[in-house]
Structures are given as C-alpha cells and as structure tokens.
Amino acid sequence: MSAPHEEDDLVPSSTPGYKPSAAKSVDEYAKLDAEDESLARWKASLGIVPGASAAAASGPKVTILSLELASPTLPQGKHLVMDLQNPTEVASLKKNPVTIKEGVEYNVRIKFKVNHSIISGVRYIQVVKRAGVTVDKMEQMLGSYGPHPNGEAYIKNFDTEESPSGMLARSGTYNVRSRVVDDDREVYADWEWSFKIGKDW
Q1: Domain ranges for the chain
Q2: Which residues does UniProt call coiled coil (predicted)?
Q3: How far apart (Å, rounded) are the C-alpha atoms in residues 186 and 181?
Q4: Which residues, other chains included, contact 12 with Cβ-Cβ below 8 Å and sequence gap of 6+?
Q5: What are phi and psi of 172, to 5 degrees?
Q6: What phi and psi, each to the nearest 5 degrees, are found at residue 59?
Q7: Is the pTM of this model over 0.85?
Q8: How does 145-174 read in b/e, with b if 16+ C-beta sit within 10 Å?
C-alpha cells in the first residue's frame, strides 16, 4: 500500500481555470463539424472516422507497451527497454536495477497503443526516490490521440536529460514509480523499477 503523500506526487498537475471536457466516443468526434473538410482530414489522420467505434470498445483505452532509456552513448547493440506487457519482467524491474552511465545525456521513450476512444491530457509521471527521499519528479505530456488507423503503436520521445555524476550519485539505488494517467485521473499504467548510476553502462 502506498503512502498518501506518495500518491500526491503521482497526481497530474492542473492548469488553473482549465476543466477537461466531457469524454466523447470516436463516432461523436467524427460527427463534430463534419462539413469542415480540412478538419475531417485531420480527424481521419487520428483514426477518427464515422463507424470507427463500431467494434466493441471493451478493455483499456490505452495499453502501455514499453518504456525505453535511449542515449547516443549506449554501446552498439545495447538496449534499455522495459517490456511492460511481460508480467515477469515488470515484477523483476524493482529488484534488478538498470545501470545508467553517469554524466551522459539520455531520454525516455514510451511506446503505447490507443485501443478505442480518444485520449487527451494523458501524462507520464515519474517520481524518483533514494533512501525514501524524493530526489526527482518528471511529468511529461503524451498529447492527444485516437486509435491508429492501422492499429499501430505510437512512440513519444521525452526531453533530453543528463544523468547525475560523482561518487555520491553512484552510491545507492534509486527507486522509481512510474504512472500514465489522464486529466480525469484515470490510470492506464502504474509500475515500479529501479536504477543505479555507474561509471559505465
């Protein structure tokens, strides 16, 4: 069970005065301003076409497939990808820390699939703690998407960051809680993992 203040860290920030609009189905969005040709083309590029929600809209609106740490300094052929559809791998993420090289630029890349409906205001939130103390929090907007016309996944690259360096940074393990949540606080994924800072990858 998570502590109440930890849950507060994972609540998306809000913009004063902004109130999310009521959720609409893909068909409802498709019929809005149907006479506007340029808008119709844009909506079609998002997979918003009349009849698109005729298929059963069951299951989660969004499936988070993987989270990757990408860096130009990674050795050839080495990939730091968390397969979030593999329950065994997800269970081991907390116990088996990922090693991140100190003082290098890297970015987080998330791969997800929109199954039905339109998503908006969806964010990736990451809280990093060491010895129980919060040392970093990241909140990145994924954006707004409809189901991909070909059923393909979307990939979102986050801003480039630099890993900490020095002996102090290299001591201990960093524990991370990651969550994908929308403006209505609907949680699409929530998992824990850990990393260490090392002299090399």
Answers
A1: 24-55, 57-198
A2: none
A3: 5
A4: 121, 123, 125, 139, 181, 182, 183, 185
A5: 90, 170
A6: 80, 180
A7: no
A8: bbbeeeeeebebebeeeebeeeeebeeeeb
pLDDT per residue rounded down to tens, the chain (201 residues): 455 556 667 776 665 555 555 555 556 666 666 677 777 776 666 656 665 554 446 678 899 999 999 999 999 989 899 999 999 999 999 999 999 999 999 999 999 999 888 888 899 999 999 999 999 999 999 988 888 878 899 999 999 999 999 999 999 999 999 999 988 889 999 999 999 999 999
Helices and strands in the chain, H and E counts: 5, 10
**Domain 57-198 top-level CATH class:** mainly beta
Centre a 10 Å sphere on the Cβ of residue 68 and count the other Cβ atoms it contains.
17
CB 110 within 8 A of CB 158: yes
Q: Show the DSSP H helices in 63-118 as ranges.
A: 87-92
Angle at 101 between CA 95 and CA 102, to 5 degrees: 115
Query: Cα(181)–Cα(122) distance, rounded to whole angstroms?
Result: 6
Chain position carrying tokens 């079609």: 44
